[in-house]
Amino acid sequence: MVLSISLVLLLGIAVFFLWKTDRQRIGPGIVVCLFGFFLAGTGIAPTITSAVSSLTGWINSL
């Protein structure tokens, strides 16, 4: 059975656990989220998406 989970969901879970273990505060977390949100609207977004897709494909092939 292949289980496909969105990278956004996995990163969201990681941020949640970092916040709960006091390794990440809510203020810097919001700043990082906003940075990612605005970065997605720039011209480099397709390159980042392609790089992440290649990386996940490579990990999946292992």
Detail the topology: elements first, then pairings.
Blueprint (H helix, E strand, L loop, with lengths): L6 H14 L5 H14 L5 H17 L1
What does this structure look like?
This protein is mostly helical and 62 residues long. It has a domain at 25-62. Helix content is 73%, strand content 0%. The chain has helices at 7-20, 26-39, 45-61. The chain is flat, with a radius of gyration of 14 Å. The protein starts with 6 loop residues before the first helix and ends with a helix.
Features:
62 residues; mainly alpha; 3 helices; flat
Oligomer state of the chains in this structure: single chain
Distance between the termini: 17 Å
Largest sheet: none
Please indicate the percent range of residues in DSSP E strands (runs of 2 or more).
under 5%
The arrangement of helices and strands along the chain is: HHH
Radius of gyration over all CA atoms, rounded: 14 Å
Please work out how many helical segments DSSP would assign.
3
- What is the overall silhouette? flat
Fraction in helix: over 70%
- The overall pLDDT average reads 80
Short overview:
73% of the residues lie in helices and 0% in strands.
